[in-house]
Structure formats: structure tokens, C-alpha cells
Amino acid sequence: MTQQSQTKRRAVVIFVIIAVVIAAVALFAAPYFLSGAAHAAVIRIPRQATTATLTDSLTKYFGDDYARRTSRIFSTLTSNTAERYGAYEIPEGSSPAEAAKILARGQQYTVKLTINGVREFMPFADRIAAKFDFSGDDLRQALSNPDFLKPYGLTPEQAPDLFINDTYYLYWTDSPQAVIEKVGAYYNKVWNKERRDKAAALGLTPADVMTIASIVDEESNQLSEKGRIGRLYINRLNHNMRLQADPTVRFALKDFTIKRVTGAHLNAPGPYNTYRVNGLPPGPIRTTDVATIDAILDSAPSDDLYMCAKEDFSGFHNFASTYEEHLANARRYQEALDARGIN
Hints:
Elements: H1 3-33, E1 41-45, H2 51-62, H3 64-77, E2 86-90, H4 96-105, E3 110-115, H5 121-129, H6 136-143, H7 146-149, E4 166-171, H8 176-190, H9 193-201, H10 206-219, H11 223-238, H12 246-253, H13 290-297, E5 306-309, E6 317-320, H14 323-340
Antiparallel strand pairs: 1-2, 3-4, 5-6
């Protein structure tokens, strides 16, 4: 065999060996790069987590093999699992290598918190907390801390004001204080100088407007008349009249199924029943919208002191400036309720 033939043979052998090695490596690596997650999932890495903790969490959603492969690659990318404390979304179809990269980079999943007409806010804190790494009691305690609320000029009873109806984007690792600061930033944005000046011109604080708005939102779903309802309550305050707002009775009784507030309900105890107490309740009876706030701030002056739901059940109200006119409106509505058998 000539020298040239031997060289060619060695080259062929080397090529075959390299090809076999490449094939073996590819066969070994394929599951790490080609297999995909069967579905999307959010993986939470708690404080003081270990690689074993991470593997257990991955196994829960994706099975043993996927979890083991992801953890192996993750361990090559970072040496301290606890440093990746957070929540991470693994999209459907992600390979173990891609999942490990998401976890190692520390790019957290965004928590979407939507607030929309929450009536009893403190119990609702448990539902908020379910989205974060803290408890409902932790959030309630923070919302009861005057130091956390002082920057916004709110009392603990007015703390729900911070959570204006909207969608907020936060992180699972955010503390209760961080949540307050982030929703508080939007509260301050809403209550800019222009709106504060409008409130002051009405003799009200932002918190006063929020409380009125919360009652207005319970009174009507019709944005076109919310400003007029708000102005009516301002008129009553200015005349030293009790608000006598039915929604505050339902709130005081914690019974929002009451359709017809009667004399039997009007003695509901507590500071939120505006049939028994003077002035505004100590805080809002639900979270409210910016649109309602603006409707009140921009409402036209009126002589309205009374209102009653229209007898056609359209969701609108009849307004009156005298008690006699109000009685006539109320009589028509009561007759309509009786005709429908509504108690």
C-alpha cells in the first residue's frame, strides 16, 4: 500500500470517527434542544431555593425528563439558584435549553393585576396576594400602616382609593410595600395638580371625591348621569344634609343582594350607613374609575338634593330639588317595584 493510500485511509477513518462522535453528541444533545414543553407554565423559584427545589417545580409541570435536562443546563449557567428568586414563564414548545436560559437570565414573568369595582377591599386582599409571594394578611397590614399611606394623604380606611380601577403590571416578588408604591404611582398620576385644583374648588379632597365616586358607581352604571349624582351628594354635604345613600346601607350590612332598601335596613350599624351618620363615610365603598372621578369634578352646578330610580327600570334616575317632588318620584318607583313583586 502506497503512502498516499495509507494517508487516504487514515483520513477516512478519522472522518468516520468524527462523524460517529458528532452523531453521538447530537443524539445525546437532541433532547436538550429539540424537545419542547407540552404547554406553557409559570415556574416560581422561592427564596433560598436549591437546584433540587427547581427540579421539583419543573417536574410538577413538565415531567421528570424535561425537568432533569432543564436543571442540568441551568446549573451550567448559574451557580446560585436562590439568586433567581422570582416567577418565570416557560412558553409552550420551549426546549430544556431555552427554559434554562429563561430561568438563568432572571427575566421575570409579569403579573397582571386587574382591579374592577371591588366592594370589600380588605377581604379582596387575599385574591390579590394569591398573585404574589406574600399573604393577604401581609397586604392588609401594609395598607393599615399610616407611614405607607402618608405620601398619598390617605388614612387606612381610605387605602382602597389607591387601587383605581385599571390593570397593573407587577412582579411575583414584589412586596406589599412595592405593590402600594406601584399602584400609588398611578394614583398620583391621576390626582395631578389639575384634578386636585378642581376638587379644592368643590371644597373636597381627592379622598373625598373618591368616596363620593364609589357611592356614585354603586348608584348607577350610566356614565352620562354620574356627574349629576356626584353633584347631588356634594349639594347635600353643603346643606349639612345626610347623604342617605342606599349603597352605603348595603355596604354597612355587607349584603349586596338587597334590591329594595327599606326601613328595616336603615338602622344598619357602623360609620358607613349614611342614613345614620353625618358627612361622608370614612372611606370608599368600592374601587372606582377615572371616568367617574372626572364626571364628578367636571359636573355642572345644580339644585338637585334628591334622586330616585326611574320607574321604567332603565337604570337612570329622576332628580328633584324639593322633597315634595322627590316623594312623587319615589311613589311611582315604589308602585313599579310592587307591580313586579320586588321586595
